[in-house]
Write a structure and sequence with these properties.
single chain, about 575 residues, alpha+beta, Penicillin-binding protein 2a (Domain 2), Beta-lactamase, 5-stranded mixed beta sheet, 21 helices, about 20% strand, elongated, disordered C terminus
């Protein structure tokens, strides 16, 4: 066999191998061209889909402030930790490290991952401190991510909690002003596309999808100084009188703005919200009670409107009781002959009943209805009660008599304050406002000015030497007001030893600037009369409020005479 026959197979193998190498090189070159040119956009999109994320840009909630700009609710940035369960299942080591940093149990995280294994998002812990968030970031735990959110903080704590309310962990209003104006306060979250690295770190902001719109700020009518003053005095009074609860409302007579609104017991909105919803309700607008003798001034308004009575018209209340059908109306004492003014001074149920029974039922009902009894005040506060005012067509004689001194109807503390504001404003009814007003609203004349002023003058005698409200006096100022001591209703009638103690009044009486109502529910101490329990609280609050608002005293000669006398005797 010759040499050519031996070399032919070798050459063929060499050419075949060389062809394979060239073909493989060509294939690689083509693949490179295909990847970098032909399929470049497709592959980029595929890569982006694995690392591009659309993330939410949280919107911070609008501030709530008092009328002078002092903060009542603000939002502070916080960090929330979340995980992708599908990634975390393959990274069990991350779970133990994360649990250690967050100081939570490993099995709690495992349960969360198991429950949400088919999802790509689950919260591990919300609203953590910045230092803890930094530790998690530095740990670079696979499958663990964080996002910025906002947490609500209430600088006033329990002082304004029932009014302001609070939000839940998702920053949605749950109670109070936070709920009533949730849409205005909450704003709109934005979104953006970002590129994250393999361990979830943010590498680059790609584009903004929608802009975040922050919530609008809200300015309340509340004066934080007066709110604190009212809260302090109410808390002390409830404790001192061993009462079940209490509430106070302070109104600006000229505008209808609420300057203070407080309740006891209270709660701190910055702490856990566990517990029954009852502790969060704003009793000044949600809880109703029979107003008792504090309604008598409006019975007198009806009497004066009828033309049958003047302030000097005399009424015989002897012998201190009045039989109406099968029932009996009683006074504390036999006051004998009283004029209309002294019916208020002495708080005579018999006198009020005799006046009421001489009137047509619709005359009384009309006055009650015009000042807002049985209607909401228009405050727009969530859950505001309207109270109860029975239709006059169904009144029987005894019901008409008891309605004249505040039994058989129900009001809220805010409603009663709004009614007294009508007397204080010379018969003009202003809508109640929880927001600061730029100018006084247009009111409605519901009682003739001369009648309102006449009744106001009668209410000044309640704080005189013969009256039941002497402890409501404010040094240097004239005050008009009315006490109330109400037996609480029970399933079988009225309780003998459970009361609501009330005082409603205004100052200065000659040209009122402020109206306040104090309600103490079920005082358990030695005293239960409105003149002894609620009136002193009114005095302290009104005294402080008038001075804080720089309302000039209208009884300076009396003050100076008293002081000069004290100096002389000293």
């Amino acid at each position: 066999m010759n040499d050519n026959s031996k070399t032919t197979p070798f050459r063929m193998r060499r050419f075949l191998l060389l062809g394979l190498v060239v073909s493989f090189a060509a294939l690689l070159s083509w693949r490179a061209v295909d990847l970098h040119v032909v399929q470049r956009d497709f592959l980029k999109n595929q890569g982006d889909s694995r690392h591009l994320r659309v993330v939410k840009v949280a919107a911070h909630r609008g501030k709530i402030t008092d009328r002078d700009g002092e903060p009542l609710a603000i939002s502070t940035p916080v960090v929330s930790v979340w995980a992708n369960p599908q990634e975390l299942i393959a990274e069990r080591g991350s779970i133990a490290k994360l649990a250690g940093i967050l100081k939570i149990r490993v099995d709690r995280i495992n349960r969360l991952i198991a429950r949400h294994g088919q999802r790509e998002f689950v919260y591990i812990k919300r609203h953590i401190n910045p230092d803890v968030a930094e530790k998690i970031r530095q740990a670079e735990l696979p499958g663990i991510y964080s996002q910025r959110e906002y947490r609500r903080y209430y600088p006033g704590g329990e002082v304004a909690s029932h009014l302001v309310g609070f939000t839940n962990i998702d920053d949605v209003g749950q109670e109070g002003i936070e709920l009533a104006y949730d849409e205005q306060l909450s704003g709109t979250a934005g979104s953006k596309r970002v590129i994250r690295a393999g361990r979830g770190q943010l590498v680059e902001n790609v584009e903004s999808i929608s802009r975040m719109q922050p919530g609008k700020d809200l300015v309340l009518s509340i004066d934080r100084r007066l709110q604190y003053l009212a809260y302090r005095e109410l808390k002390a009074a409830v404790k001192r009188n061993k009462a079940r609860s209490g509430s106070i409302v302070l109104l600006d007579v000229k505008t209808g703005e609420v300057l203070a609104m407080v309740n006891q017991p209270s709660f701190n909105p910055n702490r856990s919200k566990r517990g029954g919803k009852a502790r969060y309700r704003n009793r000044t607008v949600t809880d109703v009670f029979e107003p008792g003798s504090t309604i008598k001034p409006f019975t007198i308004v009806a009497a004066l409107e009828s033309g049958q009575y003047k302030s000097t018209t005399r009424i015989n209340t002897t012998p201190g009781r009045l039989k109406v059908g099968r029932n009996m109306v009683r006074d504390m004492h036999n006051y004998g002959m009283l004029d209309v003014s002294h019916v208020l001074t002495k708080s005579s149920n018999v006198g009020a009943s005799k006046i009421a029974l001489s009137l047509k039922s619709d005359q009384m009902w009309s006055v009650f209805q015009r000042v807002g009894i049985g209607q909401t005040t228009g405050s727009l506060f969530p859950g505001e009660a309207s109270g109860v005012l029975p239709g006059y067509s169904r009144w029987r004689q005894f019901q008409q008599a008891t309605l004249s001194f505040g039994y058989g109807m129900s009001v809220t503390t805010l409603q009663l304050a709004s009614a007294y504001a009508v007397l204080a404003a010379d018969g003009v009814k202003y809508p109640v406002s929880l927001l600061k007003l730029d100018q006084a609203p247009r009111g409605e004349q519901v009682i003739k000015p001369e009648i309102a002023r006449s009744v106001r003058a009668m209410l000044e005698t309640v704080l005189g030497p013969e009256g039941t409200g002497r402890k409501a006096r404010v040094e240097g100022y004239s005050v008009a007001g009315k006490t109330g001591t109400v037996h609480k209703s029970t399933a079988g009638g009225y309780a003998d030893n459970r009361y609501v103690s009330l005082f409603a009044g205004m100052a200065p009486a000659n040209n009122p600037r402020l109206v306040a109502v104090v309600m103490i529910d079920e005082p358990g101490g030695k005293d239960h009369f409105g003149g002894l329990v609620a009136a002193p609280v009114f005095s302290r609050i009104m005294s402080g409020a008038l001075r804080l608002l720089n309302v000039p005293p209208d009884q300076l000669p009396v003050l100076e005479t008293r002081r000069s006398g004290e100096a002389h005797h000293g």
